[in-house]
Write a structure and sequence with these properties.
Number of strands of chain C: 0
Distance between the termini of chain C: 62 Å
Largest sheet of chain B: none
Largest interface: A-B, 45 and 61 residues
Number of domains of chain B: 1
Number of domains of chain C: 1
Radius of gyration of chain C: 17 Å
Distance between the termini of chain B: 40 Å
Strand content of chain C: under 5%
Helix content of chain B: 55-70%
Oligomer: heterotrimer
Strand content of chain B: under 5%
Largest sheet of chain C: none
Shape of chain B: globular
Chains: A mainly alpha (122), B mainly alpha (247), C mainly alpha (88)
Number of helices of chain B: 8
Radius of gyration of chain B: 24 Å
Number of strands of chain B: 1
Chain lengths: 122, 247, 88
């Protein structure tokens, strides 16, 4: 069993599941949750690109020769994902604030109902 | 009907991804041979702008960057400008939420139970100590400013649930602006003394010591304070909107 | 090593099942809780993939604070819905 293939499979399944949720969600909270799932999948993919089997965390605790690096995991994708998680939280919080505002304006968090009521007004 | 169509789209996308992943042409596909030189290797051997030493061991003093945790050295030192942008995005989020969720005039907080009132100060004490430990040791152990600040914000969640006076997010916003200003000021000092923005002007120190990698340590302290203040201001805004609604 | 692979396999399967549960959950509340489960499983995976920094951040921010903010919003929305029902 190849671990890298398994992790790629997990990441892409999360992205596709989240995409399905975005396409079918009628409720704004569900759409935001599905976007969060997609984001988790992308983060998993990014970390997987820097992963080797039997990798060790990129923290220097023992001396090593720079010509023969030990089996460190790639620190660059990890640093990028660290940024991505924090920004994902910011996006979630801002969209939740927008949902609250939307709910105050329209009295609902479902998208279809508002479209239908606009048609009635016209 | 909608769901069937969406499922069809997902299946087609999945097939395309499968084909792209297992492309056997050279240079394509997801599983190429590992290339001989990665960007990260020069981060690991601390040789981005100077020649790599033959051997790196804990206690070395003349390295390019003294942080034992390589992820931290990438986040704060080599790619510090990225982090400045990220923190700016968080500032925009906190400001936007403060704009959308205004304080309600008839805000009457509900009183908490006895268990919350008694135990929360104790728990918050330990949470704050853990958070500050995590961001002060960011250059040695896993963690750093972002999770440390978020831990302190989690303590603020508990406080918001237990004290039930209306929390003011203005205090957090002032603290956060001060931290942001000092981040930029440290970058400008590097520009003035060493010639480029956010350059390490304080020296590397001995690898693995607590007092090493001075720039990383100070910047992560500032980032920790800033992230804690920003997330706390978001939480205070969400807490204020709880009661009330459109009258 | 085989134990390690089995743990990773189980975590990936739990994560995918949690993601499907988020999309198909009957109520918003259960969907939010399942999102927390997915985030926590992903944090464990990051820990096993030699990325402890990412694991800590994922645990605190995505599994902790994100879920808390979702629950705050849900409580607010439920209150509004209840008020509307009373008016009706």
């Amino acid at each position: 069993m190849n671990l890298t293939v398994l992790l790629y499979f997990g990441g892409f399944s999360l992205i596709l599941t989240g995409f399905y949720g975005v396409l079918t969600g009628k409720n704004l909270i569900r759409v935001i949750l599905a976007l969060g799932i997609m984001e988790a999948g992308v983060n998993l993919l990014l970390v997987t690109t820097g992963f080797k089997p039997k990798a060790i965390p990129p923290i220097i605790v023992k001396s090593f020769k720079t010509l023969s690096l030990p089996n460190f995991a790639d620190p660059l994708p990890q640093a990028l994902v660290l940024t991505s998680i924090v920004i994902g939280f910011g996006i979630t919080a801002l969209s939740l604030a927008l949902i609250v505002k939307y709910n105050e304006e329209n009295g609902t968090i479902k998208m279809d109902e508002v479209e239908n009521s606009e048609e009635v007004v016209e | 009907m909608n769901k069937v169509a969406a499922l069809g789209v997902i299946v087609i996308l999945g097939i395309f991804i499968q084909m792209a992943l297992h492309d056997s042409n050279p240079g394509k596909g997801a599983f190429p041979e590992k290339s001989s030189s990665l960007v990260a290797d020069s981060y690991l051997t601390k040789s981005v702008s100077q020649k790599a030493p033959a051997e790196i061991s804990p206690g070395d003093t003349k390295l390019e960057n003294g942080a034992a945790n390589v992820v931290t050295s990438v986040v704060v030192d080599y790619r510090g400008f990225d982090t400045l942008g990220e923190v700016t995005i968080l500032f925009a989020v906190a400001a936007g939420i403060g704009l959308f969720l205004k304080k309600r005039p008839h805000f009457k907080p509900r009183q908490p139970g006895t268990i919350l009132k008694t135990l929360v100060p104790l728990a918050v004490f330990f949470i704050f100590i853990t958070g500050s430990y995590v961001f002060l040791h960011g250059h040695l152990t896993p963690g750093g400013g972002f999770p440390g600040g978020a831990m302190m914000a989690a303590g603020v969640v508990l406080l918001a649930l237990s004290i039930r006076k209306s929390m003011r997010s203005v205090f957090f916003k002032i603290l956060e602006s001060l931290a942001g200003i000092s981040f930029v000021a440290i970058g400008l000092i590097g520009l003035y003394t060493k010639g480029s923005f956010l350059q390490n002007f304080l020296g590397a120190g001995a690898l693995g010591n607590l007092y090493s990698a001075w720039l990383v340590m100070i910047l992560y302290f500032i980032i920790g304070i800033k992230v804690a203040a920003e997330l706390s201001s978001v939480i205070a805004d969400f807490d204020q909107m709880e009661e009330g609604g459109k009258q | 090593m085989i134990l390690y692979q089995i743990i990773v396999l189980v975590l990936v399967l739990v994560m995918i099942a949690g993601a499907v549960a988020v999309v198909t959950a009957p109520t918003n509340f259960s969907a939010v809780i399942m999102e927390g489960v997915v985030a926590l499983t992903l944090a464990l995976l990051f820990l096993l993939m030699a990325a402890p920094d990412v694991a800590i951040t994922q645990t605190v921010i995505a599994a902790g604070l994100s879920t808390a903010i979702f629950l705050w919003t849900l409580r607010r929305l439920e209150k509004v819905e209840r008020k509307e029902k009373n008016h009706e």
